[in-house]
Amino acid sequence: MTTATAGSRDLRRVTLVVGITNTALYAALTAGAWAAWGGLQAELSRERSLAAVVADGVLILVINLAFGLAVLAGALALGVLDRGWPARVGLTAAVSAAASVPRMAALVSLGSTPTGVAYVTATGAMGFLSGLVGVLAAVFAGTLVDRARREEQRRAAEADRARRAVDALQDEELRVRRMVFDQLHGTLQYHLVSVTAGLDRLAEDLDAAGARDRGAEVRAWAGTLEEIREQDVRSLSHAVFPSGADLGTEEAIALLLHRLPAQVSTSIEIGPVYRGLVDRGAAPMPMAERLVVIYTVEEAVTNALKHGRAHAVQVRAEAEPTSDPGRWVFATVVDDDGSGPTRPDPPLHGLARHRERLEHRGGTLTLGTNPDGGGRLSFRLPFTVSPGAPPS
């Protein structure tokens, strides 16, 4: 069923519901008016049986109900829902006028209603207007509901387009990151190593030629170049694409903690649910979300050491299910034994951009203290399990 067909059915359904409701209310109102304005008492005073008088009241109800339904059915049969408002008004008015003739004939035939020209004219006009307004009100209500549904669909489509655009940008970002990482890690390091080797051989030649001072100078430059390759280039490579990210979230965090000085005690604990997802043979967390987790943990560890003067860092993470079987939440807690934040709502500084990244993906980030007084950074990040790795 197409969206347009579903929308047409919704419009017709709402129009029918509101139109039938209006008709029922109008029929009940006319029967009540007949009883309240003297019709019931007048008939009883003419010594008619109560059953006959009640039957007249019921017939008045049925006649007006049939009239309203006839106007509604006629208007829909003429396709008022597919036309503009001028046509809707004209066609509905025509149907209401045509249905008013048998209605008035039926009412007059009852004998319990006045037959004067004034009554017939007034009741006929009132019925005509009631049929017209009642059906147009139903069409209007259906149109509003249909318009609201279309607006909701439009917003959903825009949100979907925006999401797909963000996904495309993230894929492109990952592609560029990988390319730069490969260039830094491969090509640039290869050239640096080649130049360093050439400088070493030049230093050996200078030594052999008796120019040991020049050889030592060249060898020092070779050492500086090697230091740049080992530290700056590797650091830049990691910033572009964290080491171990291709292997998995746990592996990348473990490598991150492994690079800390030996004086800092570290541990990482991944919950059994997430391990179960990984053990099923597929990468359960997309690379974009994985990078967000790795960079956030890295910032948390940096803050613990730099601001909290921590000597121990513990990372705990687990996957939590959601109402969607394909969606999970990666809940992570980074505890340290440092001084911790000094205020309940500490400023985030560098963590602010990480919180923005998490919130952009529907996640959260909070910074506070753990029960031992050290710092605690907690964050939650929704992710979609890739096909082939169904949750346990």
Name some characteristics of this structure.
alpha+beta, single chain, 5 strands, 392 residues, 10 helices, 5-stranded mixed beta sheet
Provide the β-strand percentage band: 5-15%
Overall mean pLDDT stands at 84
Which structural class do you get from the secondary structure elements? alpha+beta
Q: What is the rounded Rg?
A: 40 Å
Describe the model:
α3 packs antiparallel against α4, α3 (50-77) packs across α5 (117-208) and α9 (287-306) packs antiparallel against α10. By secondary structure, the chain is an alpha+beta fold. The chain is elongated. The chain has helices at residues 3-36, 39-45, 50-77, 85-109, 117-208, 212-240, 249-258, 272-279, 287-306, 351-360; strands spanning 265-270, 312-321, 327-336, 364-369, 375-384. It has a 5-stranded mixed beta sheet with strand order 1-2-3-5-4.
